Amino acid sequence: MLTDFDAALAAGTVRYIDDRCLDDFVDAVLALRPGNDVSGLKLVYTPLNGSGLECVRKLLAKMGVKRLTVVPAQEKPDGHFPTCPYPNPEIREAMEEGLRLCDAVKPDLLLGTDPDCDRMGAAVPDGEGSYRLLSGNEMGVLLLDYLCRTRISRSTMPENPVAVTTIVSTDMAAAVAAEYGVELRRTLTGFKYIGEQIGLLEAEGHKERYIFGFEESYGYLSGAHVRDKDAVNAVMLACECAAWYAGRGMTLLDAMNALYEKFGFYRNGLVSIAFEGQNGMKAMEEVMTSLRADPPAEVAGLAVTGRMDYLRDNTGLIPSDVLELHLAGGAKLIVRPSGTEPKLKLYLSVKGGSEEEAGRLLNALTAGANALVNKRSRS
Question: Does the reported pTM lie above 0.85?
Answer without folding.
Answer: yes
